[in-house]
UniProtKB/TrEMBL annotation:
UniProt entry keywords in alphabetical sequence: Cell membrane, Membrane, Transmembrane, Transmembrane helix, Transport
InterPro entries for the chain: MetI-like, MetI-like_sf, UgpAE/MalFG_permease
A Pfam family annotated for this UniProt entry: BPD_transp_1
Protein name according to UniProt: Sugar ABC transporter permease
Phylogenetic lineage: Bacteria, Bacillati, Bacillota, Bacilli, Bacillales
Record's subcellular location: Cell membrane
Domain of life according to the entry: Bacteria
Organism: Paenibacillus contaminans
Transmembrane parts of this sequence: 16-43, 75-99, 111-131, 162-184, 267-287
Length: 299
């Protein structure tokens, strides 16, 4: 086995040589910081001159931290709602666009749904912050003009509405990479299958349930993984919109990590939070790969 691998390497060494810069960049900006954070999670470290080995004290403190538990509860809500949204709305939009008859009109729809990809996220978050603003926000102004003054809220400033307001950001949740993933999956389905479905007299709903949905299962699995990772890792939306408030109603582990590390200079504690998040993500990714079927494995 080793001899065969050696022959393959000698034969294709130029190709492997082109990968060296890639691995060098990954090692510099990904692997080395990760292992450094793993080591520093066992230290009381402020990122500069304080560096004292304390063993598992950071983890003991973390598992007693009520704010951390509140952030875990919030991230479960964010992740669950994100997965539900990304498995439904962009998929339905992709199916509708895929079946548009006119090629030119179909391309126009594709362009509209791709444009949000090139808009900086911070612009989107600031726009929604303006929409949800209490006294002068667009949403409250609209509600007042249509006679629903009693429905107005400080959407991002009240504990009961803040988390759902953050979830509502990016409504109608179509534009972006998820839409393109589903559309690519639909375009990979053989046209002969659609002809057979038409000859069998399938309705639009039957075609979606029995043909399109099973054949984009692999794309749905990919979207689930990407959504879980994105939801658990992201914090910039919460930082811009609510900064984790009011109270702890929108605090997430990633934002808590950021605040502990860069606001309170508790880099060792932040590293411990990061390690727990890594293990949590690893578990969820394994569960998704273990229990969610690909298109090829559907019975």
């Amino acid at each position: 086995m080793a001899a065969a691998a050696s022959r393959i390497f000698r034969k294709h060494w130029k190709g492997y040589a082109f990968l060296l810069p890639v691995f060098a960049v990954l090692a510099t900006f990904k692997y080395i910081p990760f292992f450094q954070a793993l080591i520093m999670s066992f230290y009381e470290w402020n990122g500069a001159n304080v560096k004292t080995f304390i063993g598992l004290d950071n983890f003991v403190e973390l598992f007693k931290d009520k704010t951390f538990y509140a952030s875990l509860k919030n991230i479960l809500i964010f992740t669950g709602s994100g997965v539900i949204i990304q498995l439904t709305v962009p998929l339905l939009a992709a199916v509708l666009v895929f079946h548009v008859k006119g090629k030119r009109l179909q391309n126009v729809f594709k362009l509209w749904f791709v444009i949000p990809l090139v808009i900086p996220s911070i612009v989107i978050y600031l726009t929604w912050q303006w929409i949800f603003a209490g006294d002068y926000g667009v949403l409250n102004e609209l509600l007042e003009r249509i006679g629903l003054e009693s429905w107005t809220h400080a959407w991002l400033g009240e504990s009961k509405t803040a988390i759902w307001s953050v979830i509502f950001v990016n409504f109608p949740w179509i534009g972006g990479i998820t839409f393109l993933i589903y559309l690519a999956g639909l375009m990979g389905i053989s046209s002969e299958l659609f002809e057979v479905a038409k000859l069998d007299g399938m309705t639009v709903w039957q075609r979606f349930i029995h043909l399109e949905l099973p054949l984009v299962r692999s794309q749905m699995k990919l979207v689930m993984v990407l959504t879980i990772i994105q939801q658990i890792q992201s914090f910039e939306n919460i930082l811009v919109l609510t900064n984790g408030g009011p109270g702890q109603s929108t605090m997430t582990p990633a934002l808590y990590l950021y605040l502990q590390g860069f606001s309170y200079s508790k880099m060792g504690y932040a590293s411990a939070i990061g390690l727990i998040l890594f293990l949590f993500l690893l578990l969820l990714t394994w569960a998704n790969n273990r229990f969610v079927k690909n298109t090829e494995t559907i019975d």
